[in-house]
UniProtKB/TrEMBL annotation:
Lineage: Bacteria, Bacillati, Actinomycetota, Actinomycetes, Streptosporangiales
Entries under InterPro entries matching the protein: Nucleotide-diphossugar_trans, Trfase_1_rSAM/seldom-assoc
Designated name of the protein: Glycosyltransferase A (GT-A) superfamily protein (DUF2064 family)
Gene3D superfamilies assigned: Spore Coat Polysaccharide Biosynthesis Protein SpsA, Chain A (3.90.550.10)
Origin: domain of life: Bacteria
Coiled coil region boundaries: none
Length: 218
């Protein structure tokens, strides 16, 4: 299975801007970098998983520590492409599949640093269950945090789905079902957009780098 991580390069002023204030742009970027590292650790721990990072932004501009710089050098990376998020998601699935053909994809982002190997195992089992062609993980804010596809080309089904809406998750589910995909839902998670989200997720995953960085704001 391809573990596809969709992320932005954690550059101050370009990521997690809704955390500012109370965070400074540099602190917000450090929180984003910590979340990305935690996510890469989680997907890297899944036996048989093949990690691909779909990155927006220039990793050369990352100024959040040598640990992330080193991690980015070690992971397969494709550049995000497309004019909207739906196009970038579909392209990322295609590009990852071209790099590692014949494998299903499970996409996550950098906004759920609480994910772990056990949860990813659950996602893989559901995607490989008889009669299932896609899985979708709803987010508590109405969006979604994970998308798994037996056929990565099927990601084109969601190109036209509007994002950052309270019904984005429901619209995504409808688009996948209209495509004729047999869909199973994953456990719901809280993703990180606001400071309140960050505090809640940090409390749920207190041993993560993310929680340590969030703790510096409190």
């Amino acid at each position: 299975m391809i573990l596809l991580v969709l992320a932005k390069a954690p550059v101050p002023g370009r990521v997690k801007t809704r955390l500012c204030p109370p965070a400074t742009p540099e602190q917000a970027a450090a929180i984003a970098a910590a979340a990305l590292l935690d996510t890469l650790d989680a997907v890297g721990a899944l036996p048989g998983g093949r990690t691909v990072l779909a990155l927006a932004g220039d990793p050369a501009n990352v100024r959040c520590g040598s640990e992330l710089t080193s991690a980015l050098r070690k992971v397969r990376t494709v550049r995000q492409r497309g004019s909207c998020l739906g196009e970038r998601i579909a392209a990322a699935h295609l590009d990852a599949s071209a790099m590692l053909p014949g494998l299903p994809t499970l996409q996550v982002g950098m906004d759920t640093p609480q994910i772990d190997r056990g949860l990813l195992e659950t996602c893989r089992r559901r995607l490989h269950a008889p009669g299932v062609e896609a899985v979708l993980g709803p987010a508590d804010d109405g969006g979604w945090w994970a998308l798994g596809l037996r056929d990565p080309k099927a990601a084109s089904a969601i190109v036209g789905v509007e994002t950052s809406r309270p019904d984005t998750g429901a619209r995504t589910e409808q688009a996948l079902r209209r495509r004729g995909l047999r869909l199973a839902l994953l456990p719901a998670l809280s993703d990180v957009d606001t400071v309140e989200d960050a505090v809640r997720v940090a409390a749920a995953a207190p041993m993560t780098r993310f929680a340590a960085e969030v703790g510096k704001l409190l």
